[in-house]
Amino acid sequence: MAFPKLLVLGTGGTIAGAARSATGKSYGAGEVAIDAIVSEVARLGLDVELVAKTIARIGSQDIGWDQWDALHREIAAAQGDDSIAGIIVTHGTDTAEETAYLLDLTLAAGKPVVLVGAMRPTDAVGSDGMRNFANAVQVARDDRAAHRGVMVVMGDAVFAAPDVRKAATSNINAFRGFPRGPIALATPSSIDWFAPPHREGSSARFAWPEALPRVAILTAGAGMDAKPVEALLGIGCKGIVIAGMGQGNAPRVVLDALADAVRSGVPVVRSTRVDEGLVDRNVEVDDDANGFVASRALGPAKARMLLMMLIASGITDQERIQANFDRP
Fold first, then answer.
1. Which 8-state DSSP code applies to residue 205?
2. Which of 228, 214, 204 is nearest to 311 (CA)?
3. Distance CA 176, CA 158 (A)
4. Mean pLDDT for the chain?
5. Is-catalytic flag, 14?
6. Cα torsion for 254, 255, 257, 260, to the nearest 10°?
7. Mean pLDDT of 54-65
8. Is the dihedral angle over the CA atoms 323, 324, 326, 327 positive or is it negative?
9. Of the residues 14, 93, 99, 122, which is catalytic?
10. Is the per-residue pLDDT at 26 higher than 80?
11. pLDDT score of 23 more than 80
12. For a tag on the chain, would you pick the N or C end, based on fewer CB atoms within 10 A?
């Protein structure tokens, strides 16, 4: 009996990290080769064939265009390969939500694509990497996982890319979902899905670009002035996401500077520095008058990814940008 074949793309991160001490806090991300991790998983008897390929061996704070371009190319090729049942990407947790969302925006929803990471390195006491990887294998090989877009598997939970975020610095259960919570619970021996596939039949939302524009996140704070906005425009930012207070608010002088940026052709999206919640239009800030876009359910990190893709696709007017942020 032939087992399902899964492609495993390694980028590094804590799941491939080596601790300086089994009980200490420091470690080196990406020091364990993906082949070694796959060999360990193969001993668990999960009845799959794992084919490993290294994309990078870095902490996810350093991930960027070169790694994203390689990941997209390899995943797109695997989606067209009838011998491959699903794709797993091992990834650091710091930017997993950004990579997952970028891939979700630019890949058709067909075979399962699963990002998986760990909060503790491989040789630390209580390491969660092997269990998370085994859970990811179960998801990636499950026929019911198809047509759900890109997913993130962490802490026995499965999250859809548009919802997932890292909500704690070091807890094992560090990931949360908003506006939806987990779409499934997974263990090395079982999966419970909570809803049917939400992207069945959908193609990629955007074509993969040749490059991504510079878009910055500016965090609002009490007493700040307009100088940070001026600085971002001075280095050539093509878009700005404001991680605002509450429902995406900021001091008046900052909002005025951002409105000037919009008038100069730089799109501005209002998101929030608050951990969870919707940012709606025209609540405290007059978005219509200022030309701003409300991020709705997207936090600053994913709002930046979507704005970069929109600008790269030639979409820069407020109405069309807002329509994309309003999409579920």
1. S
2. 214
3. 10
4. 95
5. yes
6. 170
7. 97
8. positive
9. 14
10. no
11. no
12. N
